[in-house]
Amino acid sequence: MRRRKLKPGTLLGPLPLGMVTCLGQDGRPNIITAAWLGIINSEPPMLSVSIRKQRYSHPWIKASREFVVNLVDEPLAKAADYCGVKSGADTNKFGDLGLTAAPSSMVKAPTIAESPLSLECRIKRILELGSHDMFIAEIVAVTAREELFDKKDRLCLADAGLAAYLHGNYYPLGEPLGFMGYSVAAPHVYRRRMHVLKSRARKGKEAAPAVRAKLGTGQKKPKSRPPDRKQQKNGMG
User: Fold this and answer.
1) Higher pLDDT, 38 or 159
2) Which residue among 69, 76, 139, 154 is least crowded, i.e. fewest CB within 10 A of its CB?
3) Looking at residues 61-85, what average pLDDT do you find?
4) CA angle, 129 as apex, 126 and 135 as ends, to 5°?
């Protein structure tokens, strides 16, 4: 099978999509959308997020040494895009989008109440990589919307209808392909587990319009201002 050589580039994908909230020294909250993030350790739980030095939220996060990563579902995708292409320097993103800045449990940075799941983080280390700084942080608390728990009090994140980012575009998560260990699972176990996974995936997609209506996300039209072309070119970080 023939392959074509490309110049080195940031072609890893798809990527998780997070609306990162932070708090300025004046107490004003802001949101920056980031896709260059990921889990890096389990004990203690840690993640990293890479943010371009020129981004408005960069000094806020660096000074406060904390932030919250709010996962993005389909109803929040348009708001996530807005927070990725608009600068907080001249935009009140919470106000423009009608989002709720809820108190977090362990950090001063706010949680987006409309997000299905939020990870509260404290920075342990900052790596200067070049165009971006990587903030390495410990996850000190996690909160999730109540409707994502089943009758046995188990978190069902597959029901959230999460969105992903791939080279400038947003996509919903599709049908599940398998589960960890499915390559060696017994046939009856595979059939049973896949039935549950696909049912949950369908439930998440069917619930998206209802969640959008309930939360009001996107109902408040942002003020008509042109997007920041420089930020669009620089990508989600």
Assistant:
1) 38
2) 154
3) 97
4) 25
Task: Say whether 144 sits in a helix, a strand or coil.
Answer: strand
Is residue 184 domain-resident?
yes
Q: Where residue 80 sits, what CATH number does that domain have?
A: 2.30.110.10
- Residue 221 forms beta bridges with which residues? none
- Checking if the pLDDT of 37 tops 50, the result is yes
Q: Does the residue 234 lie in any domain?
A: no
Can you give the pTM of this predicted structure?
A: 0.87
Tally of structural domains, the chain: 1
pLDDT per residue over 147-166, tens digit each? 999 999 999 998 899 999 99
Domain assignment present for 1: no
Cα of first residue to Cα of last residue in the chain, in angstroms, is 34
Peptide bond into 14 cis (omega under 30): yes
Closest CA to 113 of 101, 125, 121: 101
Residue 58 CA: distances (Å) to CA of 134, 135, 199, 206: 10, 10, 40, 37
Q: What is the pLDDT of residue 14?
A: 95
Asked, for residue 8, whether it belongs to a domain, the answer is no
Reading the block at residue 88, the tokens are: 């907080």
Question: What pLDDT does residue 78 have?
Answer: 97
DSSP H or E segment with residue 22: strand 18-23
Once rounded to an integer, what is the mean pLDDT over residues 172-189? 93
- The backbone torsions φ and ψ at residue 5, rounded to the nearest 5 degrees and listed phi first, read -85, 135
Residue type, 206: E
